[in-house]
């Protein structure tokens, strides 16, 4: 399975999660390409059978230009020129492609999140195989990932490796 991971990250947490997910997939023998959102392709290559889209959660949603600027003002080393939401608006959809979203956030698991928003936006843009994946917790005191989250991301990547791109559905456990 060819896997494309597109992620947006300002503080680096979402990027670290994306790398851990990719390592889990690679461990199971899958070819993984990871792109920062501003460098992500607008056409998904035909050999890609799984698309993963990750974003930090700002104000319980995907980022905006305003929230990315605020992140820099609060100490983020950088902010991408475009976010996941803007990329979703310009990427050419593939109706049957398996797509899973993930996010990083400081809020509780059952509150609105960038992953949920991204899955909805991807479906609206024609990616009918898009589903909300996992949320990974950021410690609000340190602004770093909470203990154990990189290991959980790696394990989720290994679980994603077992998806059958031809089946149309999956039965992945939620963590």
UniProtKB/TrEMBL annotation:
Q: Where is the Flavodoxin-like domain?
A: 3-161
Stored SUPFAM superfamilies? Flavoproteins (SSF52218)
Q: Which InterPro entries is this protein grouped with?
A: Flavodoxin/NO_synth (IPR008254), Flavoprotein-like_sf (IPR029039)
Q: Please identify the protein, giving its name as recorded.
A: Flavodoxin-like domain-containing protein
An MF annotation (GO) of this entry: FMN binding
Q: Which PROSITE patterns match?
A: FLAVODOXIN_LIKE
């Amino acid at each position: 399975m060819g896997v494309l991971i597109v992620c947006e990250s300002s503080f680096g947490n979402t990027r670290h999660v994306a790398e851990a997910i990719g390592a889990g997939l690679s461990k199971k023998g899958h070819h993984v390409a990871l792109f920062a959102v501003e460098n992500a392709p607008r056409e998904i290559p035909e050999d890609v059978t799984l698309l993963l889209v990750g974003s930090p959660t700002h104000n319980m949603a995907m980022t905006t230009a305003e929230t990315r600027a605020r992140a820099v003002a609060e100490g983020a080393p950088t902010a991408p020129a475009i976010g996941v939401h803007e990329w979703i608006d310009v990427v050419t959809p593939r109706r049957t492609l398996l797509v899973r979203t993930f996010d990083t956030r400081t809020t509780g698991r059952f509150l609105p999140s960038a992953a949920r928003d991204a899955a909805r936006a991807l479906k609206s843009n024609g990616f009918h195989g898009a589903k909300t994946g996992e949320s990974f917790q950021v410690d609000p005191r340190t602004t770093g990932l909470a203990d154990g989250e990189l290991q959980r991301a790696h394990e989720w990547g290994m679980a994603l490796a077992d998806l059958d791109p031809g089946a149309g559905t999956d039965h992945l456990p939620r963590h």
